[in-house]
Each structure stands twice: as C-alpha cells, then as structure tokens.
Design brief:
By secondary structure, the chain is an alpha/beta fold. It is about 40% helix and about 20% strand. It has twelve helices and eight strands. The chain starts with a helix and ends in a 9-residue tail after the last strand.
C-alpha cells in the first residue's frame, strides 16, 4: 500500500468512527466512540473539566457538545465583532456556536468537517442556536481540513479542537491554515501531543487513532510543522487538564490504550493536551 492509500485508509477509519459518534446520543468521553460511559463522564462534565463554563454550556444547542474536546480554544481566541472564524473539524458545532455571539451579526463562523453525519448534526443545531441568540451567522461546510473549502486570505481566526492530530498530512493542514488566513490573522488550536514516542503496540490500535493518540506529534515537531507553514509568533502551552479529565472520567475508549502501556507508566507520561497559537505575517489594520 502506497502513501496515498495509507492516508486515505486513515481518513476512512476516522470518518467511520466519527460517523458512529454522530449517529448516537452523546455519552461523554473524548475524541471518539465511548460505549458504556458512566454519568461521571458526561459531555457536560468532561467539557467543564477542560475549562468550559456553566454559562457557556447552558447556551449551547442540545447535542452540540459531544465530549470530543481536548481543550477550549474559544476561551483564548479573543474574538471580536465582525471577524470571520473557521473551525477545523467542527463536529457537532460546539466551538462554532460559542464563537458566533462573540463575532456578532457582522461576523461569520464557518465549521468544516469531512464526516457527513457530523455535518448533518451540526446543521440541525443551527436553528436552536438562532432561536437562543437571534443570530444567523454560523454555517457548516463539508470538506477535508487538508483541502479547506475556503478562499485565500479571507479568515481572521482559525480554531480547531482535537482534530489536526487525526490528519495523515499535518503539514498540509497547516499550509491550508496559512493560506486561508488574512495577513495578521491568528490560529488557536487545542490538540493532543506526545512527550515521547508511543509504544509500538499502541500505534496500530484503532482506539488509539480515533482517541487522538496514535496520530499525535511530539511537542517539538508540532512547533516545527507550524513554523514550516510560514506562521510566526508560535507558542505552545501544555494543558494537563485533558489527561486528568480522561483518567478521572474512566473513558472506555482509553481502556485498551492504558492496558497496552508499559508497567509503571501512565497516559500522562506519553500524552498531553497543548494549545498552539500563531499568526500569519502581515498587518492586522484592515481585518475584521
């Protein structure tokens, strides 16, 4: 199997896994199917552990929070009225619906997802969002994050929450981010990264792939990929709350992952959540 076939196989595996999530009621956990999750690992509880406030969660349309986050990028995005925002891998619309009121009626939020079932779920949630906010400024587009259905230089802020690590071509994703951003535009990404290489036994686990683990990069490699795309002012900040939330929720998705770890090691020895921020070179005088 060549590299192109390998990449497409990964995309199909991820697409099938998230289609399964989209077609079932939310049951908590992070980054993929979580059959048998306990009430303690509800999407609301998991999101709260990652920094989403009760007020934020209360405003969301039912079903838009699916417990798939590994951070809270909207919390530090400093969104302003009139801005255009794109969310990579928007899922049920969680961060899109939080960003919408911040950019207001003169702004626009565009969610992009490659899974039709996720897109359908997010679009169903837009009516409730409009009823609660009085806004009609959020839309969802079908597409791969390696080939965004967005015009060059039209976006003020790119968001993403626990998605880029799933891509088989992360450099291409970051090149796309740089392409669609306006000069001076910003990117704020919450993602999973590695402290050290995973054991070989984990790399082939489908659960590890859908669970945002086996596809993750080392922290130093994350920075290098972002800088290679032409972005600057790159900052990485670890967010230990993600692994703590996974461990405390007893997420069934991670049970086979933890079982494959070497003796006397923990998930936190290998995995962390990281917030990545960067800007596109140029002036911000005319954006937004």
């Amino acid at each position: 199997m060549n590299e192109t076939q390998d990449a497409e196989k990964i995309r199909q595996t991820v697409r099938e896994g998230y289609a399964e999530v989209a077609l079932k009621p939310p049951s908590g956990g992070c980054c993929g199917p979580t059959k048998g999750a306990t009430p303690a690992s509800s999407p609301e509880d998991f999101a709260a552990r990652l920094g989403y406030s009760d007020d934020q969660l209360a405003l969301l349309p039912d079903g838009s929070n699916m417990g798939l986050s590994c951070g809270n990028p909207t919390a530090i995005a400093a969104l302003q009225p009139g801005q255009v925002v794109v969310d990579l891998g928007s899922g049920g619309g969680l961060d899109c619906f939080l960003a919408g009121p911040k950019v207001g009626a003169t702004g626009r939020v565009i969610g992009v997802d490659m899974t039709a079932e996720m897109l359908s779920r997010a679009r169903q949630n837009t009516a409730s969002y409009s009823e609660r906010t009085g806004l009609d400024n959020v839309e969802f587009r079908l597409g791969e994050i390696e080939h965004l259905p967005i015009a060059d230089g039209t976006v003020d802020v790119v968001l993403s929450n626990c998605v880029i690590n799933l891509s088989p071509d992360k450099p291409q994703v970051w090149r796309e981010v740089a392409r669609v951003l306006k000069p001076g535009g910003r990117v704020v990404v919450s993602d999973v990264a590695l402290h050290k290489p995973l054991p070989d036994s984990l790399k082939s686990l489908v659960a590890a792939l859908i669970g945002c683990v086996s596809g993750a990069l080392r922290l130093d490699d994350c920075r290098a990929v972002v800088e290679a795309a032409g972005l600057e002012q790159v900052e990485l900040q670890e967010q230990p709350s993600f692994v703590e939330a996974v461990v405390n929720s007893d997420d069934p998705l991670y049970t086979p992952i933890v079982a494959q770890l070497p003796p006397e090691t923990s998930l936190a020895d290998y995995v962390t959540s990281v917030t990545i921020t960067a800007t596109k070179p140029g002036s911000t005088c005319c954006s937004g």
